[in-house]
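Entry type: protein chain
Record version: 2
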Amino acid sequence: MLTRVVSAALQGIDAVRVEIETSISGHGLPAIVIVGLPDAAVRESKDRVTTAIAASGFRRPRSRTIINLAPADLRKEGPYFDLPIALSLIAADFKQPIKRLPTCMAVGELALDGELRPIKGALSIAFEARKHGIRSLLLPTVNAPEAALVPELEVHGGHNLRECFDFISGAIELPRVSSEKDVFSQAGEELDFRDVKGQAGVKRAIEIAVAGNHNLLLIGPPGSGKSMLAKRIPSILPPPSLEEAIETTKIHSVCGILKGFLLRQRPFRRVHSTISDIGLVGGSSELLPGEISLAHNGVLFLDELPEFRRSALEALRQPLEEDSITITRASGTATFPARIMLVAAMNPCPCGHYGDSRRPCRCLAPQVERYRRKISGPLLDRIDIHVEAPALQYNELTESAASDTSATILERVLRARQIQLRRFAGSGYNARMNESLLERHCQCDSEGKKLLKQAIDRLRLSARAYHRILKVARTIADLDHCEFLQLQHLSEAIQYRTLDRAVS
């Protein structure tokens, strides 16, 4: 008898429909053969599945059985197919049609006693089920609230194999799981920019960076507040759109770190300098997303930038330019989204006190240059704003003057972003403008062109750095509600190229 059960396999952050075909033959020696490009975890599933079938009170297959995973040219990885393979084997032994088998997609890993274990990527699998018009999705109970985020799909959670087969055969009913699409709240108390003393210039640069989604580099001595300022950036990030929230949630689902809620806050990922290349950009044998993709539609914060591996930093160049990262391994190729705002912090020199009027720097000019050259020119070109965070004076630490709250800054950021959404018809922000959009939206007068020429000649800027200046100036003009770039907008944008200046 031939039976078919619909399942799904993960490819990157998306899922692909897979059909499990099982044929039990009365000829040949008893054996279970799995075909259709299975990996080791799928090939081993026959031992888990047969043991789970017996433990659940069903009869083990005693004839030669062929299990085909279609399409045959798609590599199948992971333990997702345990449940559908088990259901197909049990169904093939029955002499009557199984009620819900044609209209239900099943995924799940089985324990030896028949219990269902959680899987990764339930949200992506649910979207794939709805895409193909499948009526219901059967998966482990733990993953059911996550899959229920997808509307117009009946999601049912099962605890074990016996319960799942009784459901698809119509013997019992499993309740339909619903989701409230609640907000995913990050741990920790809300941080506010009003708590940061001084550093008005750095706060201004951060506001510009967030308003236009520009990459940002903070440079300053130890204790100047670089990390404190960076950790408050989430408080002025606009909430994501529904499409952005779903896209970000899918990535976290594939990595197995989702709590069952739709992510309604933009991610803020703080990465330590000891991270490996794979940890940062993704990969490994399972082709999972890295930190740069987990920060998609949000912020990736790299503290102590020169201490990162050179290879890891250079791997950021492609995603910063293309908003995606393509990873190729022996097991295959995957492309993950990586549209991020990069925020980095570093000391100005090895001792950390270059330019500090109170504490003399012990580093020679060649040492400072060598330290800064740990960050390559091409990577610096892709960082729109370089801003210095000087050491705070006593009067700044003790000042009682009120500074802008995060709520006030957020209002200005939202107004500037609304201008950009209207300008680009909701398809991006100033930091993502191409050359044709730059020509159209970054017009300046003769005085502005003269200033730009002087900056290019004196700082020896690359074409990419020149374009970054125009994009930042456009954002400054949006914050000022100006249609055309003015001299003060260009002048301020040029000041944010600190590391383009030579060390003296």
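Comment: The domain at 193-429 is CATH 3.40.50.300 (Rossmann fold).
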